[in-house]
Every structure is written in C-alpha cells, then in structure tokens.
Amino acid sequence: MEEIFNNVFIDGDKLYTKNLISGEKVYGEKLIDYKGKELREWNPRRSKLAAAIMKGYRELPFKKDSKILYLGASTGTTVSHVSDIVEIGKIFSVEISERSMRQFLKLSEMRENVYPILGDASRPNLYSGLLEQVDFIYQDVAQKHQQEILVKNSVYLKKRGIVFYCVKARSIDSIRAPEEIFKEEIKNLEKYFNVIKTIDLSPYEKDHIMIIASLR
Ligand SMILES: C[S@@+](CC[C@H](N)C(=O)[O-])C[C@H]1O[C@@H](n2cnc3c(N)ncnc32)[C@H](O)[C@@H]1O
C-alpha cells in the first residue's frame, strides 16, 4: 500500500481514500483498515477521477484546504472521495437533478466540506452568491454544450486555477468518431486554457477523456 496523494492510497489495482466520516459508506464501497486508518475503496468504474489515477495520473494538485467548484455532482460518488482528500477545503457542488440532489444532501449533511447547490451549471450567475473563488473546477456534466458551461463557470476560477474537464464523446455527437470530437474539444479549449494533460479513461469508461488545463 502506498499513499500517492494526501489521503489517497493505492495497492495494486485497488484505490482508496481515507474516510473522513468513520464507518460511513457512500455507494456501497468496501471499508478496510490500514494501520489504524479507515480507507474507502474508490471504484474507477464509478468515478472518472479514480479512472484517471488508475491510468497513471500522478500530479493531482488538490491540497487539504483546496476550494473546488464541482459541476455535475450527481449523487456524490466522486465528490465524496474529493471530500476525503480536501479535508478542510470546500467543494461547491452543483447538480441540476432534484432527484440526485435529494440523495446528495444526505452526504453533504455529514460532510462539512461539501456545499450543495441545486442549479443549472449553464447559468452560473444564478449561484454566484453561494460560492467563493476556487482553486479548481471539476466538470462532469455529460452535455452537448459542456465546453460553453466550463468557460462560463471559469469566472469563479482563481488566477492560474486548474480545470478537470470530463469529455464523453457520445454526449457531444453520437455519430462522429470520438478521436475527432476529442481533437476539436482540445483545440477549442486552448482558446481559454493551457492544456496540461489529456487522459484516455478506457477501459474504465469507453470513449471518454479527461482534460486537465490551467486558466490562461
Ligand atoms: C456523469 S453524471 C456525474 C457523475 C459524478 N460526477 C460522479 O462522478 O459521481 C452527470 C451529472 O451531471 C448533471 N448535469 C447535467 N447537466 C447539468 C447542468 N446543466 N447543471 C448541473 N448539473 C448537470 C446530471 O444530472 C448528472 O447527475
């Protein structure tokens, strides 16, 4: 077992985060004891950030006190692990679906660093009063106009802030070749951001990439 980032552990093909809320599971994941610490298994088939790490990403810049704007929180699978990592930080978590938000609220009630926002990420001005400037934006909304959503939300990103942008080829165009879509996404993104890294998430997620970029 090796700790690769703050509170993130890897053991062969298994990834874990140190559980912030002892004894609590979020999505039926396994809890194990490691040298007196409770670790939660982080499933790369359920979380694109875990998939990126399993694909060799080793430069995760999240710190204990990082502030993150998370777009597309769903029921909180990935947010919960990010919450384990940024223990004393803040995760402003936007989700449009009331149904997902209902479940997400249970998680956010238990985790003090999670700030739920029921809202539409394509209308970021509507939640301007609910968050602070952030160090990172993590976006996983799987929408056709998702790049526009990212650019609009970058008003909340601090200077030299970093974005984690998940791209699902089929959400953008179900007919064109994924490689072509990815190339275009990267080219367009470069108008606003410096692309640092692109990670192909297969076999954990088919036809998905994660683009990591910094604000120009
Ligand atoms: C692929 S899921 C996110 C999974 C989640 N990031 C995780 O790893 O646990 C995409 C989510 O984005 C949400 N979403 C889609 N469009 C949105 C929008 N305009 N604003 C906020 N959330 C949106 C969906 O309701 C869905 O819950």
Task: Give short descriptive properties of this protein.
seven-stranded mixed β-sheet; 6 helices; binds S-adenosylmethionine; Rossmann fold; single chain; alpha/beta; five-stranded antiparallel β-sheet; 216 residues
- Whole-angstrom Rg: 16 Å
Topology-level CATH name = Rossmann fold
Question: Into which percentage range does the β-strand content fall?
Answer: 25-35%
> What is the helical fraction, as a range of percent?
10-25%
Name the average pLDDT: 97
Task: Please report the first level of CATH classification, the CATH class.
Answer: Alpha Beta
Instruction: Give the count of helical stretches.
Output: 6
CATH superfamily: Vaccinia Virus protein VP39
The distinct ligands, each listed once, are: S-adenosylmethionine
Please provide the ordered H/E string of secondary-structure elements. Answer: EEEEEHEHEHEEHEHHEE
Structural class estimated from helices and strands:
alpha/beta
The largest pleated sheet is described as: 7 strands, mixed
Number of discrete domains: 1
**Inertia-based shape:** globular
- Please report the total strand number as a whole number: 12
Report strand order across the widest sheet. Answer: 8-7-6-9-10-12-11
Topology:
Elements: E1 2-5, E2 8-11, E3 14-18, E4 31-34, E5 37-41, H1 48-54, E6 67-71, H2 77-85, E7 90-95, H3 98-110, E8 114-118, E9 134-139, H4 146-153, E10 157-168, H5 169-172, H6 178-189, E11 193-200, E12 208-215
Parallel strand pairs: 6-7, 6-9, 7-8, 9-10
Antiparallel strand pairs: 1-2, 2-3, 3-5, 4-5, 10-12, 11-12
